[in-house]
Design goal:
Layout (H helix, E strand, L loop, with lengths): L3 H9 L2 H6 L5 H7 L15 H14 L3 H38 L7 E5 L3 H6 L2 E14 L2 E19 L2 E7 L1 E9 H7 L5 E5 L4 E10 L2 E14 L3 E13 L3 E4 L7 E4 L1 H9 L1 H8 L2 H7 L3 H9 L1 H8 L2 H9 L5 H4 L1 H7 L3 H6 L5 H7 L4 E2 L7 E9 L3 E9 L1 E3 L1
Antiparallel strand pairs: 1-2, 2-3, 3-4, 3-5, 4-15, 5-14, 6-7, 7-8, 8-9, 9-10, 9-12, 10-11, 13-14
Length: 397
């Protein structure tokens, strides 16, 4: 239990007195620090950018001399490579323009110079390889879709690296494409399309206008080498279909000429008027192999006529008749059978050479002024006729 003495002592210890006692203590010292002395530095925020630069410079400065040399060599090599590529592009463009002018091409070819570095090759007046690609080259009646040639070990005739007068080509490999798309377009006046059929054969299909009639054309062409510098086409299986009435095959053999189709022969056998018109010509009756007595009975009695013309033998013999032979002697008979006289007059002029010339795909390589240029291989591919060639001892300029 507290005594009165203890209570008095507690009230004499005033808290405000204790705060006043701090005037000369740590708080006063802290407040005096607001005043900057003459020797003190003024505070400023840190400069991180400046410090960063110092750190980066410090890193590079820390590289060894050997590493700095390696970096310098890499930069120098990159500059030299860029300079070499620039010189290469310039030379390719100049070569393309020169070939366009000297070969009289419609457009500048694409030129690719191989080997690296180019500048040292030029200084040595020798190029490892030069590839030239020329599109759309005229070749007789058709255009070559693409001509590509690669020359190897090209020797330059030059006064200096910037003054090249010409070049010699000791070895050359080439590739020529005659595309079906170009053939279909350039020979399209006859509406004929060409497609590959085997490694050396081409199939021609389309329509051929003759005397106002569109006749369906079928032919087969075989691609052959013509010596060392050309290709030729052997046209066979030529056939013109006049609807379902007849088929014309140019030529003088018995199977060639104008012949009735099986459907047309069957219709004539069923039609009394056409059958009697056919049997009324003695020369045709002899070709049909029908006895005269049977012909006379058939002309008098339609039942006998039906019996005669309804036989399979009569239809086969009718199909064997060469109707071209009848065009001049019996024009009225052919008109009765359904033939246009103007068409029959035009067909004999479509001889085998005439049709073959219309379908000819041959061409010859130009003869170089020096050296040799010859065909190596001819092959029919899906997109056209591809010809591989080689050359030796050629020169330009």
């Amino acid at each position: 239990m507290r005594t009165p003495h203890h209570i008095a002592t507690h009230y004499r210890s005033n808290p405000y007195d204790e705060l006043g006692a701090l005037d000369e203590g740590p708080l006063e010292d802290f407040l005096r620090r607001d005043t900057v002395g003459e020797d003190d530095e003024e505070w400023a925020p840190p400069n991180h950018r400046r410090n960063g630069r110092r750190r980066r410079r410090g890193r590079f400065a820390g590289l060894s001399l050997g590493m700095k040399a390696v970096v310098g060599l890499v930069v120098l090599a990159a500059c030299l490579a860029l300079t070499d590529r620039w010189a290469l592009l310039y030379a390719e463009r100049e070569a393309a323009d020169t070939l366009k002018d000297r070969l009289d091409l419609a457009a500048a070819p694409e030129v690719e110079i191989g080997g690296f570095p180019f500048v040292t090759q030029l200084a040595d007046e020798r190029l490892d390889s030069v590839k030239v690609t020329v599109p759309d080259v005229a070749a007789d009646r058709v255009s070559l879709a693409q001509v590509s040639a690669t020359a190897k070990n090209v020797r330059l005739d030059a006064d200096s690296p910037t003054s090249v007068r010409g070049a010699s080509v000791p070895e050359l490999d080439g590739d020529v494409l005659l595309s079906f798309a170009d053939l279909n377009r350039e020979l399209g006046a006859s509406q004929v399309t060409f497609t590959g059929e085997g490694h050396d054969r081409i199939r021609a299909r389309g329509m051929l206008p003759v005397a106002g009639h569109d006749l369906r054309l079928r032919a087969e062409a075989r691609i052959l080498r013509d010596g060392d510098r050309g290709i030729t086409t052997h046209i066979g299986g030529m056939r013109l279909d006049i609807g379902d009435l007849a088929t014309y095959r140019p030529g003088a053999r018995a199977s060639e000429g104008l012949h009735l189709t099986s459907d047309a022969a069957a219709r004539i056998a069923r039609e009394t008027r056409k059958a009697k018109a056919l049997l009324s010509v003695p020369s045709l009756v002899r070709r049909l192999g029908v006895p005269d007595s049977a012909v006379r009975e058939a002309l008098r009695d339609d039942t006998k006529l039906a019996d005669l013309t309804g036989s399979a033998r009569f239809a086969r013999q009718a199909m064997n008749l060469n109707l071209i032979d009848l065009a001049l002697a019996h024009p009225q008979l052919l008109k009765t059978l359904g033939f246009d006289p103007t068409l029959l007059d035009a067909l004999p002029r479509l001889t085998r050479p005439v049709l073959a010339d219309r379908l000819s795909l041959g061409f010859r390589l130009p003869e170089p002024p020096n050296g040799e240029l010859r065909l190596r291989d001819v092959r029919v591919e899906e997109d056209g006729i591809r010809v591989r060639l080689d050359g030796a001892g050629l020169s330009i300029g």
